[in-house]
Predict the structure of Malto-oligosyltrehalose trehalohydrolase.
Amino acid sequence: MPNSSHYAVWAPLPEDVRLRLNGEVHAMTKDEDNWWTAAVKPQAGDRYGFKLFDGSSWSKTLPDPRSQHQPDGVHELSQWEDPSFTWSDEDWTGRILPASVLYELHVGTFSPDGTFEGVVEKLSYLRTLGVTALELMPVQPFGGNRNWGYDGVLWHAVHAGYGGPQGLKKLVDAAHRAGIAVYLDVVYNHFGPDGNYNGQFGPYTSGGSTGWGDVVNINGHDSDEVRTYILDAARQWFSEFHIDGLRLDAVHSLDDRGAYSILEQLSMVASEITATTGVPRSLIAESDLNDPRLVSSREAGGFGLNAQWVDDIHHALHALVSGETHGYFSDFGSVTTLAKTLEEVFEHSGGLSTFRGRSHGRPVRRDVIPASRFVTYTTTHDQTGNRAMGDRPSMNLTPEQQVLKAAIIYCSPYTPMLFMGEEFGATTPFAFFCSHTDPELNRLTSEGRKREFARMGWDPAEIPSPELESTFLASKLNWEFSAEQQRIFEAYTQLLRLRKELGFSQSDLLNLEVDHGDSWLSMANGEGRLVANFSTEPVEVPFGGRLIYSFTAPQVTATTTTLPAWSFAILER
């Protein structure tokens, strides 16, 4: 890690460390905290790395664990980046999470060229749609050129193929000028398998497995520096890159047993930078624990995060509309279950989860925790890409069913998130893909995935091979809309506009009114009431009044509404 005066690296494991800089080798000295330094002043564009001596031999030159740029990939030299940038977002005051509309996207497949610049070119489109915040899937470097991003190995750097650190700053600057916040999805629970050399420097992991990689060392010996590595990465994104928020991947996989949780420490970093800049910084957790303590205040014994993803509402809605009730959808699939999740956030709030075979979750204090702290969605990268074929809901559902699901999400008081392409019913898949530099690792990844889905009854020959470039290219969005897709896009735009105009995002959970029958549901919120039919036959619901919007042609009277199959109506409350 270079600073303004010298090069340094934390390396408690090797007996000796040397700096290789622009083809020359320099000796380094170690201090009592196991930081090695070289009295060489960094210059912008310097190419450098470190050679480690383990007592018997020297390693090849390794990239800096705190590298900010890897122009030639994760196995090659790091490049020192001048942190300065000519920002034009001085008028940006930020966006608080409540009332935000998030849009999750993968940089490599969102646009034809798969770069940050490709996202910049779509900012006007996203603003027209009603999006107020981008959530970028991980942009940290990984082995190869194609990856979802959850195999990142250098947590302070930006993937060169997307445009590197300068490209990310240009995107953030342009987004802020367009009135759109930018969130980064970051992975602090494991390192990727390709190009991870950090363990040769120090104990960045502690043994054991998360299922994706070794457990990150945030509790064991020398874990203070590993925690600092994470906290400094977050501080860098907020301060140097003007990032508005972080989505923390799978926090339930963190071995987080300290008196001060790493999540609480991250919350303190976000609060500190919010206070010093006046621009709000937010943290969103992904967790399958159904534990509202994540979003409870630190004063109340919680971790102080701003929001968490809510899979239970997704599962309830997906299972009800699609009819899929296998695996973790097994406890879902009825209107009653959907109504419960809309009212209480979690289906599993301390009761039995048949999928897990045990009690699961904890109730949400609806009188204490605002609805905005729970992020809801009709699908995500996981819920699409972790299917055998990477097929989107829009590839299996009618336009009416797609828009019905969107209406449920956008008329609820929770913070909504779209997954790229759903707003026009994309017909391209979003499959799992990677391009590890080790052919054997590619083979094992492909075979393991096909073996997993074969146990579920899929023909392995039909499952896309993740290492093939064709799998990646097939996952790119097609921006040429059919007439049907244009109609879906207009419906999404209208729903997001009404969400704002009717105050659907303003009501707290105590003011939310949910009623239902066997096949219908009513949700009164803000100044509107949504009525929905989840069946293949028309249904009459006992609510009427003035019709504000519908995707179909319901029959509305003063006291009742007759809804066609798989349809909804928004009524004046």
